[in-house]
């Protein structure tokens, strides 16, 4: 840090000036500079000018600044005094500096302010007929002092300190205790004073402040018809301005939209639970009531509790193994806790917490709780809207959800049978499901899904995680109030940043759609009419999915790969299922992350390192922007590695010792992609068991490495076969320079996958060799010369042979060939002939299962078909994303205009509650309404300015469909959440999985 290093030279000077400020400085120390009479002994630490003044002038300067910190020179140093010692008191009920003929003095009144805690003398206005001044509490409020009690208050907090703490706790998650303790230390950091403890009063005032601010911002203060107690369900919550809302931001004929446009009006929802947000068995609803009962994000308490009393002990049995939510549904983690977590619903594309979409959990993530949350939030959405609901256990939860929602209390009951609803699993989580689930519940293959990832539900948990410690010991009312407040803040920040977010997503979508479209075109050309058959298979399958479950024709899923042994995901599920069975039998787990999940995370981290190593070797980070991405990727790896080390300490203490020894021997800093992870195979054989390593880890790694070998070999075959097709097409059809460049780009991306598949296989083979011993590894070692296409002979054979011969010898041999000399023994000719069909040897990678039989050509064609279908889906999803984003931009502006008009209609306060209100209140109502209307208007103007640049750069968003009428939209199985986590969403999800691994 160059500025810091430069500053170090001046550190002594800075320190000298700080010490100098402890004295009286350059001021006149003989006479007060204001009156030239008194002795200048006083200075104010809060005024800009710290000139010394006399007691009289100090009093005059601070009659309207009663909360400033003043110091007095005692002849040797400055000591803090209270302004009350100078005769200053706070007069209420009158204008500034105006005296009251009938004051009611209160000595020892405590005021909490941004610069500390003060003890002042207060004077209420007690004039006869003091109606204008108001009650004691009103006199305080009109000076922006919030009273701790409504009857004869003796403590107050200024609006400034309440607002400061409110912002700090929302943004920085500062606790009430820490903030108040900081104020105490501002007043007296040595513990020598007599400051009264007003922590409980401050906490209570803060709860009331939060509630009132939420009510004010939702328009409740401008409602002259209903009191706060008559607030409607969810009325104080903030709605997403980009999601479809009939009557607000949709055209009147939206239900009659053409079939290909209907997805533009889909509502994308996501639900999930967080088990970090627990609450201990402290207090009760009676002693600690909720000020906001169902008025914002949590559902109504009493009806929800009554419903849970009717629910017997559910057993959510999973047929899709590895679902942690179901594993925890009815078991453990509940002793000593009144609440074991929170379930919540969000809009999946913009991550707004849904009104009345939050519920408490009592025994894990039970269907009953999540059903209630889902039905509760649906109350605020038009049943006519088609819905896509993402849930990490949607494959199980959706099976009988219609009947379960029909059985809910009438308050939230809804009939999903009459609504079009699709259920999906988030893109990151779906990797832990069975193959059937990955095919049936994937957003990748859902027409109309665009680039929705379903993982947005995890990001609010990262925002809420830091408050888990403070809310754990709160009463039920305080906890709900705090969480509602943070939910509201999350939604407001999302609203104000939607302009930037949608712009970034649109720019990414336009560019990626162009790339995917070009790749699909290159993939399609030269394949004749067969692609029309493949496209029809996609269309038939998508149409079949639209039919009711009982009327489906059972069309083949075009994205299903030919079966070839147990995949990596199936292996993980098998191991997780085994762990779950052991847990049921009473086996003790060392960590909430089980051994198989831990090993999965190690392998995922290794994959990130492998990808980065290859990109660095390929010189992919030359520009400033690329170097920034490199830093971000390395930072991400180190952050994930740090999390793993804590778990590794528990499961593999020998690995930590090995790392420690290695670090002491190696002082050179390593890049993130080069930092050793340490797997069980890295440990000496004697340390792969207790106590150096968990007894199951080595066998778990062995099974997972076996699956890696199988999957990487399959993927390697696929990408080599694709390379053959691409080269054939380029040779026959690509002539123009532009086409050559495009084809080279496609080949380069395919080659990257070949290299990654190769590296993954080689890493897995090396691990298996150490785990089993070289003679016991059933998989063959993959060498560079083995990585060649099935129909091209040894791609590298000629090059290797030519290098061995040397340039001169090769030239001599060519001359010999030209002269017609006998070439039977010519090595160059043999090298050339090696690529001919008669002498070609098929690499062992094309042998099925080590039997020596060549992989069937039909299997390869099936693989190509699936890859083409996936390429088509990627192109389609990206195109859909462009149109969805364009529709969302329009809806944002329409909703903001609606909100502006709504606030402009709140300027009059003439209803029943207006009785007894004065002109000042009426003016405040109007001013606040117009201020809010102006805020929404300016937000809309900001969005237009941001998007105007995008329009100028990229042109119209129309034309996202190609000439053949392809459905627009996309997803890449290698890039599950690309573009989903934006810069403004700094805090990545840190829930039970590795949610940021999908970036």
UniProtKB/TrEMBL annotation:
InterPro entries: CxC2_KDZ-assoc, KDZ
One Pfam family here: KDZ
Sequence segments annotated as region (Disordered): 954-999
Acidic residues bias (residue ranges): 972-999
Source species of the chain: Gymnopus androsaceus JB14
The protein, known as: CxC2-like cysteine cluster KDZ transposase-associated domain-containing protein
Domain CxC2-like cysteine cluster KDZ transposase-associated: 83-191
């Amino acid at each position: 840090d160059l500025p810091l290093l430069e500053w170090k030279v001046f550190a002594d000077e800075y320190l000298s000036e700080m010490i100098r400020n402890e004295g009286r400085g350059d001021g006149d120390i003989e006479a007060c500079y204001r009156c030239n009479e008194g002795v200048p002994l006083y200075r104010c630490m809060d005024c800009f000018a710290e000139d010394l003044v006399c007691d009289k002038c100090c009093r005059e300067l601070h009659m309207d600044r009663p909360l400033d910190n003043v110091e007095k020179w005692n002849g040797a140093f400055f000591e803090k005094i209270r302004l009350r010692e100078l005769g200053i008191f706070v007069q209420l009920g009158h204008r500034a500096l105006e005296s009251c003929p009938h004051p009611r003095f209160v000595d020892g009144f405590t005021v909490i302010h941004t610069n500390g805690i003060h003890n002042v003398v207060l004077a209420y206005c007690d004039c006869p007929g003091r109606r204008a001044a108001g009650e004691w509490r009103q006199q305080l409020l009109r000076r922006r002092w919030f009273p701790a009690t409504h009857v004869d208050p003796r403590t107050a907090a200024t609006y400034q300190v309440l607002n400061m703490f409110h912002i700090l706790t929302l943004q920085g998650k500062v606790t009430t205790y820490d903030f108040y303790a900081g104020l105490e230390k501002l007043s007296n950091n040595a513990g020598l004073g007599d400051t009264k403890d007003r922590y409980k009063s401050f906490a209570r005032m803060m709860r009331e402040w939060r509630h009132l601010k939420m009510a004010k911002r939702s328009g409740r203060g401008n409602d002259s018809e209903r009191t706060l107690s008559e607030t409607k369900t969810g009325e104080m919550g903030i709605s997403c301005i980009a999601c479809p809302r009939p009557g607000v931001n949709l055209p009147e004929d939206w239900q009659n939209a053409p079939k290909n446009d209907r997805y533009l009006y889909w509502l994308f929802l996501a639900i999930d639970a967080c088990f970090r947000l627990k609450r201990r068995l402290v207090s009760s609803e009676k002693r600690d009531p909720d000020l906001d009962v169902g008025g914002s994000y949590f559902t109504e308490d009493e009806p929800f509790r009554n419903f849970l009393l009717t629910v017997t002990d559910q057993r959510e049995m999973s047929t899709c193994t590895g679902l942690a939510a179901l594993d925890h549904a009815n078991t453990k983690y509940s002793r000593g806790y009144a609440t074991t977590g929170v379930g919540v619903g969000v809009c999946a594309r913009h991550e707004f917490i849904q009104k009345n979409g939050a519920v408490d959990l009592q025994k894990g993530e039970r269907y009953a709780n999540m059903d209630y949350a889902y039905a509760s939030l649906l109350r605020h959405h038009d049943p006519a809207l088609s819905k896509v609901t993402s849930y990490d256990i949607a494959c199980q939860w959706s099976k009988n959800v219609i009947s379960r929602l029909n059985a809910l209390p009438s308050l939230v009951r809804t009939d999903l049978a009459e609504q079009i609803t699709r259920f999906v699993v988030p893109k990151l989580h779906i990797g832990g499901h069975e193959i059937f689930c990955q095919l049936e519940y994937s957003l990748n293959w859902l027409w109309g899904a665009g680039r929705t990832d379903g993982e947005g539900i995890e990001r609010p948990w990262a925002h809420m995680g830091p408050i888990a410690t403070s809310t754990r010991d709160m009463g039920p009312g305080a906890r709900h109030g705090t969480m509602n407040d943070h939910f509201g803040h999350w939604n407001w920040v999302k609203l104000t940043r939607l302009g930037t977010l949608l712009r970034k997503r649109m720019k990414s979508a336009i560019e990626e759609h162009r790339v995917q479209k070009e790749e699909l075109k290159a993939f399609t050309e030269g394949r004749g009419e067969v692609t029309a058959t493949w496209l029809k298979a996609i269309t038939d399958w998508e149409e079949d999915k639209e039919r009711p479950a009982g009327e489906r024709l059972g069309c083949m899923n075009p994205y299903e790969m030919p079966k070839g042994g147990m995949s990596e995901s199936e292996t993980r599920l098998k191991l997780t299922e085994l762990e779950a069975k052991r847990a049921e039998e009473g086996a003790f787990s060392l960590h909430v992350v089980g051994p198989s999940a831990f090993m999965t995370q190690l392998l995922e981290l290794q994959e990130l390192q492998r990808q980065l190593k290859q990109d660095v070797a390929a010189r992919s980070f030359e520009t400033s922007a690329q170097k920034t991405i490199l830093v971000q990727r390395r930072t991400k790896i180190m952050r994930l590695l740090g999390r793993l080390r804590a778990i590794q300490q528990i499961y593999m203490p020998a690995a930590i010792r090995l790392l420690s020894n290695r670090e002491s021997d190696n002082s050179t800093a390593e890049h993130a992609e080069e930092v050793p992870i340490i797997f069980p195979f890295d440990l000496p054989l004697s340390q792969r068991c207790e106590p150096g390593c968990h007894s199951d880890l080595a066998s778990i790694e062995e099974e997972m490495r076996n699956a890696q070998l199988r999957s990487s070999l399959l993927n390697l075959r696929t990408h080599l076969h694709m390379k053959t097709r691409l080269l054939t097409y380029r040779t026959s059809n690509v002539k123009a320079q532009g086409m050559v460049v495009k084809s080279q780009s496609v080949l380069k991306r395919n080659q990257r996958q070949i290299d990654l598949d190769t590296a993954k296989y080689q890493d897995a083979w090396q691990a298996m060799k150490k785990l089993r011993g070289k003679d016991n590894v059933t998989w063959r070692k993959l060498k560079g010369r083995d990585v060649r296409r099935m129909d091209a002979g040894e791609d590298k054979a000629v090059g290797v042979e030519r290098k061995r011969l040397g340039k001169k010898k090769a030239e001599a041999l060519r001359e010999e060939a030209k002269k017609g000399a006998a070439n039977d023994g010519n090595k160059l000719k043999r090298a050339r002939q090696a690529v001919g069909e008669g002498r070609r040897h098929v690499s062992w990678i094309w042998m099925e299962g080590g039997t020596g039989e060549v992989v069937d050509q039909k299997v390869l064609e099936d693989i190509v078909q699936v890859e083409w279908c996936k390429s088509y889906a990627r192109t389609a999803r990206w195109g859909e994303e462009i149109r969805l984003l364009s529709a969302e931009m329009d809806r944002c502006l329409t909703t903001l205009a609606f909100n502006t008009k709504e606030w402009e209609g709140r300027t009059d306060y003439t209803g029943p509650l207006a009785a007894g209100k004065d002109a000042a209140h009426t003016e405040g109502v109007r001013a606040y309404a117009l201020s809010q209307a102006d805020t929404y208007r300016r937000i809309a103007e900001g969005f237009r300015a941001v998007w105007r640049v995008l329009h100028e750069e990229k042109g119209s968003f129309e034309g996202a469909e190609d000439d053949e009428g392809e459905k627009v939209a996309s997803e890449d199985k290698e890039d599950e959440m690309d573009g989903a986590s934006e810069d403004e969403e700094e805090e990545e999800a840190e829930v039970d999985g590795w949610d940021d691994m999908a970036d």
